[in-house]
Design goal:
The protein has eight helices and 13 strands. By secondary structure, the protein is α/β, with parallel strands linked by helices. The chain folds into two domains: about 120 residues, 3-Layer(aba) Sandwich (Rossmann fold), CATH 3.40.50.2300; about 100 residues, Arc Repressor Mutant, subunit A (Orthogonal Bundle). The strands form four sheets. Strands 2-1-3-6-7 form a five-stranded parallel sheet, sandwiched between helices. The chain has a four-stranded antiparallel sheet with strand order 8-9-10-11, covered by helices on one side. α6 packs across α7. The model has no long low-confidence stretch (mean pLDDT about 90).
Length: about 220
């Protein structure tokens, strides 16, 4: 799956350059141009890491970081033109995972992001997801409904696991293509076909099973 980044940066040209490079490097980027939009982006449950500029037009990046650290350990890399030792120390002491002084190369930014993401990964503990009668064993890559195994192809399993991680959440076809197939440019018919097959296999189980609901105009969700 492509890591999702929040880029909080008020310099439009710099933000567009970073976003373009990061997208090509395999990330999905959500750009916020001020502190207000940045706060919303940081609290989006789908964000894996924040790249945060300190000089924002409507507030301090450090205050934004301080507020985030009161409730979350979401990884944050500060990027700033403030290169003095006191600024770097302040950012790190408040809770930044790394501090990068402008100007810097985009390759270095990508390397720093990947390093922080590696450090923040939780231990590889097997997880069993449950949604109603559905159980998905992520270690065994096996799904059952009321104990009845589902015979799933690899992409069918990956699609079901993603939906089961967030029951009730609506995923667009583009999000599913991006997170399951790693390529949002594929035709949406790919998702339609796999959802159709998954529905058939869930319906074939001789016991009430969760269903995949189409939310017209938005996407799909798993209803336990």
């Amino acid at each position: 799956m492509r890591p999702h980044l929040a880029l909080i940066e008020d310099d439009t040209d710099f933000a567009l350059m970073c976003s373009s490079y990061l997208e090509r490097a395999g990330f999905t980027v959500r750009w916020a141009a001020d502190a207000r939009a940045g706060k919303s982006a940081m609290h989006d449950g789908g964000i894996d890491l924040v790249v945060l500029d300190l000089g924002l037009p409507d507030g301090s990046g450090l205050e934004l970081l301080r507020a985030l650290r009161s409730t979350s350990r979401l990884p944050v890399i500060v990027v700033s033109g403030r290169g003095e030792e006191t600024d770097r120390v302040a950012g790190l002491e408040i809770g930044a995972d790394d501090y990068l002084v402008k100007p810097f190369s985009q390759r270095e930014l990508v390397a720093r992001i990947r390093a922080v993401l590696r450090r923040s990964e939780p231990p590889d503990v097997p997880v069993v997801l449950e949604a109603g009668a559905l159980r998905v064993d992520t270690a065994a890559h096996r799904a059952t409904v009321a104990g009845v195994p589902l015979a799933l192809r690899p992409k069918e399993y990956a699609l079901l696991e993603l939906l089961a991680r967030s029951p009730g959440r609506v995923f667009s076809a583009e999000q599913l293509l991006e997170q399951v197939w790693g390529a949002s440019w594929q035709p949406s018919a790919t998702v339609v076909e796999h959802v159709y097959r998954l529905r058939g296999k869930l319906a074939a189980v001789p016991t009430p099973a969760p269903r995949i609901t189409t939310v017209r105009g938005f996407g799909y969700r798993l209803d336990p």
